[in-house]
Write a structure and sequence with these properties.
about 325 residues, six-stranded mixed sheet, Deoxyribonuclease I, Chain A, alpha+beta, globular
């Protein structure tokens, strides 16, 4: 059994906060409003992950240097191996971090060639990490794609680049391999036109988006593990939610600006049974069989702070640790 988590933790560099309300300040509005500096939040994130049940953790938006060093050190002290791809570009840090309780082998990183502002000020991209776990060689891709709905064309180019990146890694080894893609892909998985949003966890009157179809096609037909295992709306970005919480105690994400009412699934765990690689000399595809990863369980992880800063600040009990919720999967290699 392998438990994996993907989570965008919203730890922005101080320079980036200058352009975020209240603007001109190195502290984001969420730090001022809730009196929780990002380093305090980073420490809480590190503690939760270091004492967690997950074997594999893929993080995005660990942009802040101090926060990244704090989380990496805490996870290493807890027995994880940590891979933070080297940052060699003039643009800002890529923000990726992967931690594994299993030995990490070959690892690499590639930044996306296409990007639009504000993402273009960082070197966002994807890492590939080989892990030996449960008798199989597991290739893990940790990725963070272009944000904002209007940039679907950029995401399509990034997904095509990811497909080539994976093909290069798989071609370098003849050993049986399982392939898992984790990350904030910024692709809305489902949409609910002409209907009010139900409470989180309600039944799905949703339909799959065209961009989700493109995502699956461009990567060669992976299995979207959330759609495979759960019939509910797996919102990882929840700007609406239930004011008093749903049946699981989840409520509106208070780290999302109040004027953002979107409810979206943006974060993914994708598994592959085969990988379709394009031939250089023909328009056809060559399929490579992969070790199957069966998914036994999938869940959205809201990661609340779980404690108020002062006794009278009871609302802080519901303050999440990031504007994104995480996605957790339990896998069994076949």
């Amino acid at each position: 059994m392998l438990r994996a988590l993907t989570w965008n933790v919203m730890l922005l560099p101080r320079a980036a906060k200058l352009g975020i309300p209240p603007r001109g300040c190195v502290h984001g509005w969420w730090e001022n409003r809730w009196a929780h500096p990002d380093l305090v939040r980073a420490s809480a994130i590190a503690d939760r992950l270091a004492t967690s049940r997950w074997d594999l953790i893929a993080l995005q938006e660990v942009f802040d240097t101090r926060a990244r060093q704090l989380i990496a050190a805490r996870l290493e002290d807890a027995g994880f191996e940590v891979f933070v791809p080297p940052h060699r570009e003039k643009r800002g840090h890529h923000g990726l971090l992967l931690a594994s309780r299993h030995p990490i082998g070959r690892a690499s990183f590639e930044s996306f060639r296409r990007a639009r502002f504000p993402d273009s000020i960082s070197s966002k991209g994807m890492s590939a990490t080989e892990i030996e776990a449960l008798g199989v060689r597991l290739l893990v891709i940790n990725a963070h794609l272009q944000s904002e709905a209007i940039h679907a064309d950029v995401r399509r180019a990034q997904l095509a680049q990811m497909h080539r990146f994976v093909a290069t890694h798989l071609a370098a080894s003849s050993r049986p391999t399982a392939l898992l893609v984790l990350g904030d892909l910024n692709v809305v998985g489902e949409e609910r036109p002409d209907a009010p949003a139900p409470r989180l966890g309600a039944a799905l009157p949703l339909r799959r988006t065209d961009e989700h179809r493109d995502l699956i096609a461009l990567l060669g037909g992976p299995r979207d593990l959330f759609r495979e295992r759960d019939a509910r709306a797996g919102f990882t970005w929840d700007g609406l939610g239930a004011p008093d919480g749903d049946e699981r105690g989840l409520r509106r994400n208070l780290l999302i600006p109040w004027d953002d009412k979107d409810q979206q699934r943006l974060d993914y765990a994708l598994a592959f049974d085969t990988f379709r690689a394009r031939r250089a000399t023909a328009p056809t595809h060559e399929e490579r069989p992969l070790a199957r990863l069966d998914c036994a369980e999938v869940s959205v992880e809201p990661f609340p702070f779980e404690r108020a800063r002062r006794a009278r600040e009871t609302s802080l009990q519901h303050l999440p640790l990031s504007d994104h919720y995480g996605v957790s999967v339990t896998l069994y290699p076949r």
